[in-house]
Specification:
Blueprint lengths: L4 E3 L28 H13 L8 H11 L7 E4 L5 E5 L4 E8 L2 E3 L5 H7 L18 E5 L2 E6 L2 E6 L2 H9 L23 H8 L5 E3 L12 H23 L10 E6 L1 H12 L21 E7 L7 H9 L12 H4 L3 H4 L10 E3 L10 H7 L9 H7 L6 H26 L10 E7 L2 E9 L6 E9 L5 H4 L21 E5 L10 H13 L16 H4 L15
Helix pairs in contact: 2-15, 3-12, 5-6
Length: about 550
């Protein structure tokens, strides 16, 4: 349960606590009637008040950014679904991210492009880590450029949040420096490595990944990324500290948006431990947390989203004038199944009937959804051309889809366990709001048609209840928030799912957390007394001083 909640006023701000019937928001006690003269003065003063300006982040954080040493505030950012550019290196074909001949993506109606967009429908029980293809991630999407009907257009994806970070002095370079240490054996300088590091002191490391894949299987790639960047930051700090800094001394801050929050949280909780397909779940060791100091999660779908179900039933058009992705094509992506709402939260039901389990293979076969879509024969033919007919393709699709659902259920069980992060890791949650957000869907039994049937408070994509993993969903109890998650600070902002990452108020909070909020007791000081020697150094939070209070 969040320990501290920060609420910001603005359009769509939510008043907490019930309001009695007939209550208008005024205090119940009758107040004396104001005179007309006093009312005129009040209205005149109100008219003179100006609307607040957005925070000028460059001005606020200029000095602290200048005072920061290279490698002092290393940050790893993890984008959400669709947030990394995907390409096929051999052909040079763009699968996602702009520049493709059809606009933002490969053509989901072309058989060759279908095979690039999809992940393989495997005939055997290959490990989920091996269910991949030749497509690779090539950078986090800042802005996607495309052309439709001869008209160029630009879609801002993560350019906004990267601009916010730049105001705090965060910068990135495309490729890491070589791993050669700045100081060799015996402390002798390695001048070649010294020069390379001196020209490349980045502190914002962006983890691009194939967002189609099984989320837990991404943990190994993320671990390799973390280890490589630790060596890079150690080299940078060695250069400026005048001593050999070991990679194990380095800890990062973490910023993760949307599904990227699930990628990061799995790693924090389980390290590189595989999820497995049967037996006991991986132990909750928090092995990945040892590499981080602070973790900021922005609009994570911790309890899933009914929109994931809708996409695998009705397909998805990701932008106006762009081709529609068939449901059967999207159903090959394990990550989308792992974004489903929980059965216990009762987000899917027949019209006027009992709730349905979103991850029950029998439900999907009954209604002909996902890979079993009655209109998906052309997709199945493109993805399984080696099979003789649609009956054989449906049989393989049925078994593969059932396996994807079992995997998603196991992933949810691993992620929903109660547990407190280690004391050295501070966690922050940012929740969007002010938008009626799809919350539940109903199915017409006769046709299998699925439609959104209810909306609740959220950011237009992720429900407030999902970000909080609120176990009051589905009528399971009332009263105070019940959640297995623990956050040191929770910030509620009235903004949309992606727009929140460009919000200057969010940027102000983010840069304060990363650059200025005291990290431990040694950083605190009385106004008339200088801070302790430990706080005058880097203050990277890589250790907890003796006597520091536990969280």
């Amino acid at each position: 349960m969040p320990d501290r909640a920060v609420h910001t006023p603005g359009p769509g701000a939510v008043r907490h606590g019930p309001r009695r019937a007939g209550e208008t928001g005024a205090h119940h006690r009758r107040l004396p009637r104001a005179s007309p003269g006093l009312m005129a003065v009040v209205l005149l003063l109100a008219g003179c008040a100006s609307a607040p300006e957005q925070p000028d982040l460059q001005s606020i954080y200029r000095e602290v950014a200048r005072a920061s040493e290279p490698g002092e505030h290393p940050l790893i950012t993890v984008p959400g679904l669709l947030g990394s550019r995907l390409v096929e290196p051999e052909s040079g074909a763009v699968v996602w991210g702009g520049g493709a001949r059809t606009g933002l993506s490969a053509d989901p109606e072309d058989p060759a492009d279908m095979r690039r967009i999809a992940l393989p429908v495997v005939p055997r029980k290959a490990p989920f880590a091996d269910i991949s293809d030749d497509v690779v991630a090539r950078g986090v999407l800042e802005r996607a450029e495309a052309e439709v009907l001869g008209v160029p257009f630009v879609v801002d994806v993560y350019g906004g949040v990267l601009d916010l970070l730049a105001a705090g002095g965060f910068r990135s370079t495309p490729e890491p420096s070589p791993d050669a240490p700045v100081y060799g054996p015996g402390g002798a300088p390695n001048f070649a490595a010294y020069r390379r590091v001196a020209s490349d002191a980045a502190n914002d490391f962006r983890f691009a990944y194939d967002w189609r894949r099984d989320i837990s299987s991404l943990a190994r790639a993320f671990h390799r990324f973390v280890q490589q960047r630790k060596r890079r930051v150690a080299a940078i700090r060695s250069l400026y500290d005048g001593r050999s800094v070991r990679p194990e001394e380095v800890r990062f801050d973490l910023l993760a948006h949307s599904m990227g929050g699930l990628v990061a949280r799995y790693y924090l909780m389980h390290g590189t431990a595989p999820l497995g397909e049967e037996g006991a779940l991986p132990p909750l060791t928090w092995a990945g947390a040892e590499h981080f100091r602070r973790a900021v999660f922005v609009a994570p779908p911790n309890a899933g989203s009914i929109l994931a179900v809708d996409n695998l039933v009705n397909g998805k058009r990701f932008a106006p004038l762009q081709p529609k992705f068939p449901a059967a094509l999207l159903a090959t992506h394990p990550s989308v199944w792992q974004l489903f709402p929980r059965e216990r939260h009762r987000r899917l039901a027949e019209e006027g009937g009992e709730p349905l389990d979103p991850l029950d293979p029998a439900v999907w076969e009954r209604f002909g959804w996902g890979l079993l879509d009655a209109e998906g024969a052309d997709v199945r033919a493109a993805l399984m051309p080696e099979l003789p007919d649609d009956a054989a393709r449906r049989a393989r699709a049925r078994a593969h889809q059932a396996r994807l659902m079992r995997r998603a259920r196991r992933f949810q069980r691993a992620m929903d366990r109660w547990g407190t992060p280690p004391a050295h890791l501070e966690t922050f949650l940012v929740v969007g709001g002010g938008f009626r957000t799809p919350a539940a869907a109903e199915v017409t039994p006769e046709t299998g048609a699925l439609a959104i049937a209810a909306e609740e408070e959220g950011d237009g994509v992720v429900l407030r209840a999902s970000a909080l993993l609120d176990e009051r969903q589905g009528g399971e109890g009332a009263g105070r928030l019940r959640t297995p998650l623990r956050f040191d600070t929770t910030l509620f902002l009235p903004d949309e799912h992606v727009e929140i990452t460009r919000n200057p108020v969010f940027g102000d909070n983010l840069l304060f957390w990363l650059l200025e909020q005291p990290r431990d007791a040694a950083m605190l000081a009385e106004p008339d007394r200088p801070p302790p020697a430990a706080a005058r150094g880097r203050g990277d939070g890589a250790f907890t001083p003796a006597g520091a209070p536990d969280r």
